[in-house]
Amino acid sequence: MRVRLIAANWKMHKTVDEALAFWRAVRGRVPAGVEAVVCAPFTALHPLAVERREGDGVALGAQNLFWEEAGAYTGEVSPVMLADLGVRYVIVGHSERRQLFGETDETVNKKVRAALRHNLVPILCVGETLEEREAERTEEVVRRQTAAALDGIAADDAARVVIAYEPVWAIGTGRTATGEDAARVARTIRGVLADRYGAGVAEQARVLYGGSVKPANLSQFLAFPEIDGALVGGASLEADSYLQLLDAAN
Ligand code: PEP
Fold it and tell me: Which ranges of the sequence are coiled-coil (predicted)?
């Protein structure tokens, strides 16, 4: 049985005080059947880790990591540093990082491997651009990104990876994929897992949808058993809206 996951991606938003206010508003209010993850900016991770208490029901996530453990990599944050704070999840390969910061299938793979080595759960983002969608290349792009990100990863670890299907044209635009489209791509992702690792891993791994998810449209995706939750940007910034998403997923 896969547990539904609602992951908040705050992107480059929230001061420490704002992050703490959100946490205090949400903690202890997470419905029992849902996993809640807040992927905060690096600057808020330590204060949130200090604030976090047993029973809060919210896990901490980061939005990026570097693949080395330590060294002369100015400006980077390592998996060791994240694990040290009690961070459990880390977004890898978000389309904003692929498009604005030059991340490639190869660097995404290095980051997924580094996260797994340190017991962090990667939330691997895959998805096509509008141009690729219009050229009917969605399945090919998603297949390629998923397979490349999992290169060199053993079955046990692959089953722990959360894969978020995020069509690039739907992120922050107010446009969403249809539930049917998202479910079809989720099946494609599970197909990649099944080909490489067998049906067991394909059944175990969680696949999320992301792209302009809001409390009012979440059910259109969760109606499909292939979809195990959502990665949410804009609608995760307000505690009330995030709580509504958690309730809708329960
Ligand atoms: C995201 O940041 O991954 C995302 C899906 O953003 P939004 O929900 O704002 O489209």
Answer: none
Average pLDDT for consecutive 10-residue bins of the chain (250 residues)? 96 98 98 97 98 97 98 98 98 98 98 98 98 98 98 98 98 96 98 98 98 98 98 98 98
Domain interval for residue 81? 4-249
Please give the torsion angle defined by the CA atoms of residues 31, 166, 18 and 244, in that order, rounded to the nearest 10 degrees: -30
Question: Is any ligand 1 atom within 6 A of the Cβ of residue 7?
Answer: no
For position 1, what pLDDT does the model report?
83
Tally the residues of the chain. 250
> Does the beta carbon of 210 sit less than 6 angstroms from any atom of ligand 1?
yes
**Structure confidence at residue 37 (pLDDT):** 98
Domain count, the chain: 1
User: Per the residue annotation, which of 35, 94, 96, 226 is the catalytic one?
Assistant: 94
Q: Are 89 and 48 a contacting pair, CB within 8 Å?
A: no
Indicate which CATH number applies to the domain containing 76.
3.20.20.70
- Ramachandran area for residue 198 (φ above 0: left; ψ -120 to 50: alpha; else beta): left
Nearest to 80 by CA among 60, 94, 64, 65: 65
Give catalytic status of residue 166 as yes or no: yes
